[in-house]
Amino acid sequence: MRTLLVAVLFLAPAAVFAADGGTGGQTFLSAMNPGISANGLFLAGAELDDGVFAKPSWTGESASMPGKGQTFGTGISVQEMEVQLTAAVDPYFKANMVLAIPGTSGLELEEGVVTVTSIPRMQVNIGKIKEPFGRENVTHTHALLTIDRALISQRVFGEEGLNDVGVNVQYMLPLPWYSQLTLGADAGQNDRVLGSGDPGGFGYLAHWKNLLDISDNYSAEIGVSGLTGLDDIGGRSLVGGIDLTIKGHGAGRHQWNRLIWQNEFILADKGGSNPDRTTDDKQIGGLYSTLEYSLTREFWLGGRFDMVGLPAPVDGGQTFGGTAIAVIAPTEFSSFRVQAQRQFLPGGHTADSLTGQLSFVIGVHPAHSY
Amino acid sequence: MSFRSFLPGVLCVAGLLASSPAFATVNVITTTQDLASLAEAVGGSNVKVQWIARGDLDPHFVDAKPSYMLKLASANLVISVGMELEVGWLPPLLSGAGNPKVQSGTSGYLEASAAITPIEVPDGTIDRSRGDLHPQGNPHYWLDPENGRKVARLIEARLEQIDSANAASYKSNLAAFESALTSKEAAWTSAMAGMKGSNIIGYHTTFDYLAKSFGLNVVGFVEPKPGIPPTPQHTLDLTALARSSNVKYILVEPFHNGADAGPISSGSGAKVVTLPSSVGGLTGADSYFGLFDTIVRILTTGA
Ligand SMILES: [Zn+2]
């Protein structure tokens, strides 16, 4: 009996190795290298705040204050440079690392995640994670429709989004549709809604993601997200979100006529009943809606509507934004975007911007996300 | 029974169950309809086959339905074309499915390309200045019927491995498929005899295996480089080439824009024909045999 067990244990990995026919002519060493890709985003643009040219964003003086109107300033700059490494660690784990250079200096760990892949219906992610709060938060900047992030996401979570060290468990619920529940805890370092600095000041996250077929060519994603933790004045923050996305494409030679309509509503309630919290900053709510439609494989058009200050005013009023964008993508690996945006800010202020972005990806084939 | 002897016993039983599970039916998910048709032929009533990418869509770019992640979650065997054809869309589906039994490197995952000898394996420096090159060679190999035979054999061997109880049935299904294929091939070859040696232009490298197996010469492509849309200069050059080499057909997949080939056609007299590149690509191409029946009918009648 014991001999059989040993034989089973030894044969299993051999069978696994023999079953892999996918490495083609690669040498052992290059097959063992992680998949490496790099992407870069260059910006050029002009911004008028109340009709006056805003300073270049690289001077630092008008460093964008999300939701306050400024976008990228006037001038040219590097938006982001990233290197991504991905590989299976062994039959039980895979790892993904994204090193980012925001602007032209400094290196930061944007993501560094080890994922347990060997448990049926379940994934466990450990590390620095773009946390699954809604849809936009998990999207890399270069994969966004627009050049900037939605005003409400910037206002609630800051420019970096909700991206912290922690652990989450994703479980595929036994339902007749694709339904995934994520429960997670992070270090509570997001300085917009968490950031208490307390030893026990963890953030706790829940996300319920549902993917549904509408027809052969159309599908929907419906999600609900929640986050709670202690904020910088020691009160309890509660952040909730709902998201709805409809995706579709034509058939046959109309395969390239794709449509994506994505909507999110986020409401953050900060400080709990702590009297130190000013009413203006206590509740931040808003929504965005993006619509994109591709006319051909290489050319698509889109727009975004933003609203911050729902249901209660934020910064003394409501902010509205309208963005129009055109994208030319010669291949999957390069694209050029032009975006025109107007923001109507509280107090009758406006911010107008025209921004161009050049994007490139080199290295392993970029994977789509679902 | 003591705990010490009980535990290894449990592990052994678990190990045996894992190495040769008994299936009521084997749940097979293939990436393409071509592979589904082959898996159905070999698997017969012991398998339930479902496919992901519809045959009238470009297999390089697939927006898979979310329900396929659910189907992959309960799959016993996933069969892909391989050679990086599905590199942009299959890995995220597989990781979203959370099914450790069908991940790359397991007996529940089969790349059908392991069965065939690829053509057009690029030499020299491979980088994307040469377009969206398939670094392991042309992956559109299912359009050579002999490759269909090789893939059917590979699928049969894998089904025997994971469902040994039904090995005899898989063997006889394969034998029946192979003899039917042999007689079909004879019919296709004789129907195509008059076409042998004809010059054709492809849109992408999709029909290169088809051309090779029926003796057609591919003299150029509407795409200047793989995956790169036509440019005016390339179209002019290709029109001149089509005229000088008396090109008979410009072959376009159902998902490509035949209008791109229009100027070449009108400048050279070559006829633009839409060919199904996969099972499900056009009406009539509803099985692996139906695919070639349709292709042969279109090429021999010009419509
Ligand atoms: Zn191809």
Can you count the helices of chain B?
10
Principal-axes shape call of chain B = globular
Helix content of chain B: 40-55%
**Distance N terminus to C terminus of chain A?**
46 Å
Residue fraction in strands of chain B? 5-15%
Q: How many DSSP E strands of chain B?
A: 8
Strand content of chain A: over 45%
Question: Looking across the biggest beta sheet of chain A, what order are the strands in?
Answer: 1-3-4-5-6-7-8-9-10-11-12-13-14-15-16-17
Order of helices and strands of chain A: HHEEEEEEHEEEEEEHEEEEE
Unreliable spans of chain A: 1-27, 60-69
Number of domains of chain B: 2
CATH architectural name of the largest domain in chain A: Beta Barrel
User: How big is the Rg of chain A?
Assistant: 23 Å
| Morphology of chain A | globular
- State the separation between the terminal residues of chain B, measured CA to CA: 75 Å
In the CATH hierarchy, the third-tier topology of the largest domain in chain B is known as Rossmann fold
The CATH homologous superfamily name of the largest domain in chain B equals Nitrogenase molybdenum iron protein domain
- N to C succession of SSEs of chain B: HEHEHEHEHHEHEHEHEH
Mind summarizing the main beta sheet of chain B? 4 strands, parallel
User: Spatial order of the strands in the main sheet of chain B?
Assistant: 2-1-3-4
Summed up, the helix count of chain A is: 4
Quick summary of this structure?
Chain A has helices at residues 2-19, 28-32, 151-157, 279-282; strands spanning 35-49, 52-53, 75-88, 93-102, 108-116, 122-130, 163-172, 178-186, 203-213, 218-230, 236-249, 258-269, 283-294, 299-308, 319-331, 334-344, 350-363. By secondary structure, chain A is mainly beta. Chain A folds into two domains: 1-33, no CATH class; 39-363, Porin, CATH 2.40.160.
